[in-house]
Design goal:
The complex is a heterodimer of chains A (282) and B (155). Chain A is mainly alpha-helical. Chain A has eleven helices and no strands. Classes of the chains: A mainly alpha (282), B alpha+beta (155). At the A-B interface, helix 1, helix 2, helix 3, helix 4 and helix 5 of A face helix 1 and strand 5 of B.
Chain lengths: 282, 155
């Protein structure tokens, strides 16, 4: 393709205001749909002021590059350059902020007597799922003739999508007491079985069932190769995401390593389902 | 990184058809640039994100982590159905949140206890205040009223 630089420049259209408004509306819808279960969870409100502020700042800081990367795959539109992806990511952040603030206020969770710390904390923790939801909205809600990008995803891209899916699903489960309670009750054997079952499900979701985006192993790829490169590596990524979530939410403080690991295995169960589904639908 | 898949011959530079042409689904939508309006919204998002992270980092680095410092202020005493309602505002001036905060209200005549009432706040965040109330049979105006926090647990 000769002279592709100028061709690209020529084909970058300036969006009409109406298109941006539509995208924005969808982003609000996405933020609402994805974050509403968490917006109506008591543990999430309490996390706002219980969470270590530096860990919360780190989580928010990591959300931005995640959104930028996600905008490559999804986003409000076909993007031409990195700066456009950054713009989309920041729009998702703005949408998430307004959505979270409005919903929390309507639900009576923001009231007089609240400190700035409590307000910022409550909004910040909810902004992570809401901004991911805003970013995914175009893909999930957009009626754009099914011409959505099927990214010729690299290996790193596949793992990234799994991380997003795991983050998203474990976000709604990690703050709850139930995760700790379940981990507490399971024996080591049961936990190993749960981990094995989780991996079988992950593999089955992506390769076995005939979902819309079912992946086909490439030619010459044996079962073991695919299983090791995607399912085992993916499960490891999910386990790391689970550990990070537990640490962020203060669920690792003063807890023994065995208990942390078993909580992470329990949390990886929903996380792995999220990871597998993310590879199919994103 | 510039995506090179945008220079598809069927893409329309004016964006009028945005790939809806049904040509076997192979047509790609042209890349869309960023309009000034979108940059404005993005700028707002960036400012909000920076403000939040800045505030949280500042709070994390300068916060003393001081334990809960709970004080109770009486707001009003009103006569209700069967007795009297004392409304209070419980404040936590410490840098740590408190859970299961027990509040004890006592009516005394000198050293002798006339009546007491308790209330429990599920959560009392740092630097925040929450309202609470107590019911008494006797009129608090006739006795000495004291309200204080008696205990909490770390959330």
């Amino acid at each position: 393709m000769p002279d592709s630089g100028s061709a690209v420049a020529a084909l970058v259209v300036t969006p009409k205001l109406k298109e941006f408004a539509t995208g924005l509306g969808r982003a609000f819808a996405g933020a609402l749909i994805f974050a509403l279960p968490m917006l109506m969870t008591m543990e999430m409100w309490q996390l706002g002021f219980i969470m270590e502020p530096l860990r919360m700042a780190l989580l928010l800081g990591l959300t931005l590059p995640l959104l930028v990367r996600l905008s490559r795959f999804e986003g409000f539109r076909e993007t031409a350059a990195l700066s456009d992806d950054i713009a989309d990511a920041l729009v998702a952040v703005a949408v998430a902020f307004v959505t979270v603030l409005a919903v929390l206020w309507f639900l009576g969770e923001l009231g007089p007597g609240m400190s700035l710390r409590e307000l910022f904390g409550k909004v910040a923790v909810q902004m992570v799922p809401a901004s991911i939801g805003a970013m995914l909205a175009q893909n999930q809600l957009g009626g754009e003739d099914g011409a959505r990008r099927r990214p010729n995803t690299s290996y790193g891209g596949e793992i990234f999508l799994m991380v997003v899916g795991a983050l998203f699903l474990s976000f709604s489960v990690a703050p709850t007491e139930e995760v700790v309670l379940i981990a507490y009750r399971l024996s080591a054997t049961q936990e190993l079985m749960l981990a094995g079952f989780t991996m079988v499900l992950m593999h089955g979701f992506v390769y076995g069932l005939e979902f819309g985006g079912t992946e086909r192993p490439g030619p010459g790829e044996g079962f073991l190769s695919v299983f090791a490169r995607f399912t085992i590596a993916g499960y490891a990524a999910v386990l790391l995401v689970s550990l990070y979530m537990l640490w962020t939410f203060g669920r690792t403080d003063g807890i023994s390593w065995e208990e942390i690991l078993s909580t992470a295995i329990v949390l990886s169960f929903p996380g792995a389902i999220g990871a597998a589904v993310a590879r199919l639908i994103l | 990184m510039i995506r090179s898949d945008t220079d598809d011959a069927r893409s329309r530079p004016d964006g009028s058809d945005r790939g809806r042409d049904g040509e076997g689904g192979a047509a790609r939508r042209p890349a869309t640039g960023t309009s000034p309006v979108e940059w404005a919204v993005a700028g707002l998002g960036g400012a909000l994100l920076a403000a939040m992270i800045g505030y949280l980092v500042h709070d994390g680095l300068t916060g003393t982590g001081a334990p809960p410092d709970i004080s109770v202020r009486t707001v009003s005493v009103t006569a209700v159905g069967e007795g009297h309602l004392v409304q209070v505002l419980v404040r936590n001036d410490g840098d740590s949140p408190a859970a299961a905060v027990d509040i004890l209200a006592e009516l005394k005549d000198g050293e002798s206890l006339v009546e007491d009432a308790t209330a429990t706040l599920d959560y009392l965040p740092q630097q925040s205040a929450r309202p609470a109330g107590f019911f008494f049979e006797r009129n608090p105006a006739d006795h000495a009223l004291t309200v204080r926090a008696t205990g909490y647990v770390d959330p």
